[in-house]
ABC transporter ATP-binding protein (Winogradskyella pelagia), 264 residues
Amino acid sequence: MRVSNSNSILEVKDLSIGYKSKREVTIIASNINFQLEKGQLIGLVGANGIGKSTLLRTLIKIQPPLNGEIRLNGNPLQDTSSIALAQQLSIVLTEQLVSKNLTVYDLIALGRYPYTNWIGKLQPNDIDTIDKAIDMVKINELKHRKCYELSDGQLQKVMIARALAQDTDIIILDEPTTHLDMYHKAYILKLLQRLTKETQKTILFSSHEIELAIQLCDEMIVMQKNEVVHDQPCNLISDEVFEALFPNDLISFDKSTGSFRVTK
Ligand SMILES: Nc1ncnc2c1ncn2[C@@H]1O[C@H](COP(=O)(O)OP(=O)(O)OP(=O)(O)O)[C@@H](O)[C@H]1O
């Protein structure tokens, strides 16, 4: 694959994703092509069951691609060791397998595991990175609390701080706005937008908050039945990509406001 742009963090070429069992291969999406660059906020959207989580799982190397190439910082993902992967890519999943008995600080400190020795002893630069992550997400007042004491919105911020402490080029989040109210959905996505600008990290998230993603993202990946499209939100609107996302018997997309309306 061509490494055409030194700012390119993640490149996907002719990718097919899906599931293989002994008896059959189920292709969820194919011919996926995109290139994500440094400092961008990218929203991955599409209808329920279209394959967003499958795509993210493939990008984070939990699931093998059926076909095609994924390159992280120019190197094939399949050849990237677990430790090298953890130094370049961090993950925030919806259903986190965190021990909620940990304090917020200790949970965020776990983000440093790719850099600490086998005892996991934090060095001064680790502590500095953890403190910066806590400051950036503005959760200083939470740091001595136990994770089980947190609301969903607070826990989401803590998980984002943990990913920042991991100090990777790209952070990938699967539905970070699930369980949040309207205000906190906007808050979390706005926080991600600010972090891309302040840190120049690339942040890719999946979401059903299409209208917020249109307003906040630099680029979006839209999964449709027969095609996966990647472009800036304004181009996706003028190409009428959002009109084709859902059956139009119930909702339609209003180009002028960038929002969906219930058909009367
Ligand atoms: N382990 C699996 N084996 C086989 N098929 C699977 C598996 N996991 C998911 N699928 C199927 O893959 C398709 C895509 O699912 P996926 O969870 O990726 O969609 P999604 O866009 O993330 O959905 P949602 O928005 O509802 O979370 C669905 O048809 C689903 O049934």
Q: What stands out?
A: The mean pLDDT is 93.
